Each structure stands twice: as structure tokens, then as C-alpha cells.
């Protein structure tokens, strides 16, 4: 093998190694609900109230799986504070594997650990006692309708 061939082979191996190392970094820059997110699943739920519907894609965590095991649910959704609606669940969900998360934003569906509620955010928030269950697929406009309503939550 000539010196030029050896140099080209080393360059190809080095280039391939660098490309493989950079791929996860590029993938992280994609939309958080996209296929690059290891936490996104194909599990979706529908939340219906006041003739309005939200859909959410759930994260792959024990708390989200526990919620799905309870569905369908017929409960009540109500305003809470200036940035969210809440749904009181019939029992607490598992908190196994929970931990801090970043990138909090409107459109998050979370579980509030201290009281066992679902928290549906339509404005900015920060709170350490939450587990992100997923994100709303097509916005969160129905959450802006003030009031208390019967709500149905089901898997789709």
C-alpha cells in the first residue's frame, strides 16, 4: 500500500469517526418532539372539555406510562394561577425515574408531584416539583378558555 493510500485511509477513518461523534449533537438541535428525542414516544392522548380538544404526545417515562394505564378518565379541568389548568387525578402516579428537566415552555403537559395533579401549561412556568409527561401536538389554545369543565382523557 502506498503512503498516499495509507494517508487517505486514516483520513477516511478519522472523518467517519468525527461525523459519528457529531451526529448526536446535530440531532439534539431538532424539535424536541421529533425522532431525535429519545424521550418522545408514539403514545398520544386526547384531552376533551367544553367541546374543545387537545392532543399530546407522551414522553417515555414511568409516570407517563402510569397515566396511560389509568385511561380513559372522566374528571374535571379547572384554572389554576395565571399559567395553567389542572386536573385532579384519582390517585398519585409513580415518581420512579423522575428528575429535573429543562426547556420548560407553554404547551407542556406535566405531573405535579406534591399533589398528584396534571398541570397543563399555556404560559411560562418554572417549578422543581414537576415531571414532564409530554407536549401538546398542535398548540394549547383550548387552555386559554377560562372556567371549570368536565374533561375526558383517553388514549388515541
Automatic annotation (TrEMBL):
<dbReference type="InterPro" id="IPR006311">
    <property type="entry name" value="TAT_signal"/>
</dbReference>
<keyword id="KW-0732">Signal</keyword>
<protein>
    <recommendedName>
        <fullName>Cyclophilin-like domain-containing protein</fullName>
    </recommendedName>
</protein>
<feature type="signal peptide">
    <location>
        <begin position="1"/>
        <end position="27"/>
    </location>
</feature>
<dbReference type="InterPro" id="IPR041183">
    <property type="entry name" value="Cyclophilin-like"/>
</dbReference>
<feature type="domain" description="Cyclophilin-like">
    <location>
        <begin position="49"/>
        <end position="154"/>
    </location>
</feature>
<dbReference type="InterPro" id="IPR029000">
    <property type="entry name" value="Cyclophilin-like_dom_sf"/>
</dbReference>
<dbReference type="Pfam" id="PF18050">
    <property type="entry name" value="Cyclophil_like2"/>
</dbReference>
